[in-house]
Write a structure and sequence with these properties.
- By secondary structure, the protein is an alpha/beta fold.
- It has one domain (28-305): TIM Barrel (Alpha-Beta Barrel), CATH 3.20.20.20.
- It contains ten helices and ten strands.
- The chain has helices spanning 2-24, 68-80, 102-119, 131-139, 157-163, 189-206, 226-234, 254-260, 268-280, 291-306, and strands at residues 32-35, 38-41, 47-53, 85-89, 124-127, 144-147, 167-171, 214-217, 245-248, 285-288.
- An eight-stranded parallel β-barrel has the order 3-4-5-6-7-8-9-10, surrounded by six helices. A two-stranded antiparallel sheet has the order 1-2.
- Strand 7, helix 6 (189-206) and strand 8 (214-217) form a beta-alpha-beta unit.
- The longest helix has 23 residues, at 2-24.
């Protein structure tokens, strides 16, 4: 019993020391997010990232925008509705999904990004971990790579992102999309995610990516139980020790269904509640399906929070 306690104390001490080291490198709340030719202001309110899935099998809207014309029209609609970033994904990463490969991703993405890269007035993010896909889309006008593998899949990807001065989103995921929801376990989910994201940030900086170009994402729903997801949202402020802007993606995810028993198309109010909590606890970017409604949620929450006691 004493040996077990001693091991636990040593483990906790190690976590505290790592967080202290991270705190020493923390230089205040991020004011901007730099990505290519854009510098997005993080000081006024959380940014809205609109989701554009050009897949036949995404959990919420798979197939709706799979056709090129519909995808392009929806991107312009989200821009009009107030999106600050459009995040385009050609490969579903829902629980249990299988990878499709770089060539198929490019087949789905190229024509869309070629047009949007010239006509959108807001940054384009590409949801991929594939070097070939990232490079081609950056050539076509994308400004951000949203990497669910946090630069662990291809050692060249970080250097390519740095070379384009692009933004990067580094996400925590346990295992891979096919296996991530098979009984995920953590001794301390918050501290384990902090250590993972701290290492991901160091990896990005080593490749030459600037801190102002880095967004960290704790990965709601990616290898987490409902309890883990709720805890991450509730203790999101603890991730501020990492010194980078934070992205949270709760939109329509299955942890909402686990609590309320709702199908994907009926989770907007619950998504809104999760967004308010994420905002209050320090989210800088909110990744959502319904841009117009969630932007209203953000603006109203921000207006209330900015009022001073008189």
């Amino acid at each position: 019993m004493q040996r077990s306690c001693a091991c636990g104390m040593a483990h906790n001490k190690k976590i505290i020391e790592q967080v202290k080291k991270s705190a020493l490198s923390y230089s205040g709340e991020p004011k901007i997010f730099a990505c290519g030719k854009y510098k997005l202001d993080l000081s006024r309110r959380p940014l809205i990232m609109g989701i554009l899935n050009v897949t036949p099998d995404s959990f919420s809207d798979g197939g709706i925008y799979f056709e090129k014309g519909k995808a392009i029209d929806h991107a312009f609609e989200m821009e009009k509705d107030g999106a600050d970033i459009i995040d385009i994904g050609a490969e579903s990463t829902r629980p249990g999904s299988m990878p499709i490969g770089a060539l198929e991703q490019l087949k789905r993405l190229e024509g869309i990004v070629k047009i949007l890269g010239k006509k959108l007035k807001i940054p384009i993010s590409i949801d991929t971990s594939e070097l070939m896909v990232a490079k081609r889309c950056l050539d076509l006008g994308a400004s951000i790579i949203n990497d669910v593998c946090a630069l662990r899949k291809d050692k060249q990807l970080g250097a390519v992102i740095a070379g384009y001065n692009a933004g990067v989103i580094l996400m925590h995921m346990k295992k891979n999309p096919r296996t991530m929801q098979q009984k995920p376990q953590y001794k301390d989910v918050i501290n384990e995610l902090i250590r993972f994201l701290q290492a991901a940030k160091k990896r990005a900086v080593k490749y030459g990516i600037k801190r102002e170009n880095i967004i960290l994402d704790p990965g709601i729903g990616f290898g987490k139980t409902t309890e883990h997801n709720l805890k991450i949202i509730n203790f999101l402020e603890k991730f501020k020790v990492l010194g980078c802007a934070l992205l949270v993606g709760t939109s329509r995810k299955s942890f909402i269904a686990n609590i309320l028993g709702l199908p994907a198309g009926e989770r907007e109010f619950a998504t809104a509640a999760s967004i308010v909590c994420a905002m209050i606890n320090g989210a800088n970017i909110l990744r959502v399906h319904n841009v117009r409604q969630m932007r209203e949620v953000v603006l109203m929450t921000q207006a209330i929070r900015e009022q001073k006691y008189r």
